[in-house]
Amino acid sequence: MVKERARILVVGGGYVGMYTALRLQRRLKRELDRGEVEITVVTPDPYMTYQPFLPEAAAGAISPRHVVVPLRRVLDRCRVLIGEATAVDHAKRTATIATLATEEEGTGGQRLPYDELVLAPGSVSRILPVPGLADHGIGFKTVEEAIGLRNHVIEQMDIASSTRDPAIRDAALTFVFVGGGFAGVEALGELEDMARYAARYYHNVQPDDMKWILVEASDRILPEVGEEMGRYAVTELRRRNIDVRLQTRLESCADRVAVLSDGARFPTRTVVWTAGVKPHPVLAATDLPCNGRGRLTCTPELSIEGTTHAWAAGDAAAVPDVTAAEPGRECAPNAQHALRQAKVLADNIVHSLRGEPLQTYEHAYAGSVASLGLHKGVAHVYGRKLKGYPAWFMHRAYHLSRVPTFNRKARVLAEWALAGLFKREIVSLGSLEHPRAEFELAAGGKPSQDPPPKGSS
């Protein structure tokens, strides 16, 4: 039984937010029934995105709706509020929330009081001041971006197939990916695989006509899988005629020309930016302590240092790694830690409410797996190194075991099974991004190019 009534506010509906709320509603079931506890989840989207499956969604191996988990269905004992926290005043135990109705109401943000705060807003793409990037760059962090990129790649193949201008054709078939981490490498590997397959259905586009370029500022890619497996990944990508450029930066992509720091210039209509992330901007609008990189300073118990009744984990939190040999080391901001931190965080909130001792977050990094396309991958798990088909199979098996809910596991597994029996789908549904264009044209107007509303797919 809790010592006093508690209003728990969870900011963020990603890995940490969803799993923390899910565990809280299970651990505090009786208290929720008695009205002693109230859990509110504030999230900009009504779903949690399982990001490791985004590359496969982009390649068409998985339906986009099967890489997201509907929060209202999973968190049936929580109040799910679609909106964003714009500020947090922990001294007064209030958060300012902007909902979908805030602008229409014209009354400003809604102030939400709380007793316990979980800050898990995640991260946003780190955009560098590269000329032309804001105008032409494509991100790869959301399911909307993944499906939009798939449609874009197929559309470029359509343009190349129909144009009579060699310059337009060359630019359409040149794809530049910036960032050699998991997102960049897996997205490039899956999409190159898809485009290579799709080329068989074009009478005048061959796989060798396409240029795929990976730009990485450091001297290696996929650092999480180790140096040896990173070198293998580079070799495997280059064997597929993918141009991997290490110790190279994108200096400009203005006027649809990618200019690299090694002097190379590539006319291109596709620049995919996956060069890192940064903490969510809401952290700067709080009165809670952050480190030099803008992440919340946390204790090993996942409470925010120097405060009470405030907790954090995941990308937004600087959590001490108590398993590390060297002092001062922090847990890497990845899904492996986020899932486990959410469990400990929820348990510690329950312990705190019941006046029980807190537990320390302790997890030694198990390793990483990465896909390089269909039947290709690399893995470094518990000291064992795998490559090729075994690594790809381990990648699928691991993430199938980690995707939330039995419903999603069954749907993903069914899609994989069907993909083994039938041919790939190579249809572009880019018109979904502008659903009113046809109606506006029929009404005699000019089709608008406004982006779809947030949360659509």
TrEMBL record:
<dbReference type="InterPro" id="IPR023753">
    <property type="entry name" value="FAD/NAD-binding_dom"/>
</dbReference>
<protein>
    <submittedName>
        <fullName>FAD-dependent oxidoreductase</fullName>
    </submittedName>
</protein>
<feature type="domain" description="FAD/NAD(P)-binding">
    <location>
        <begin position="7"/>
        <end position="337"/>
    </location>
</feature>
<keyword id="KW-0520">NAD</keyword>
<keyword id="KW-0274">FAD</keyword>
<comment type="similarity">
    <text>Belongs to the NADH dehydrogenase family.</text>
</comment>
<dbReference type="InterPro" id="IPR036188">
    <property type="entry name" value="FAD/NAD-bd_sf"/>
</dbReference>
<keyword id="KW-0560">Oxidoreductase</keyword>
<dbReference type="InterPro" id="IPR045024">
    <property type="entry name" value="NDH-2"/>
</dbReference>
<keyword id="KW-0285">Flavoprotein</keyword>
<dbReference type="GO" id="GO:0003954">
    <property type="term" value="F:NADH dehydrogenase activity"/>
</dbReference>
<dbReference type="Pfam" id="PF07992">
    <property type="entry name" value="Pyr_redox_2"/>
</dbReference>
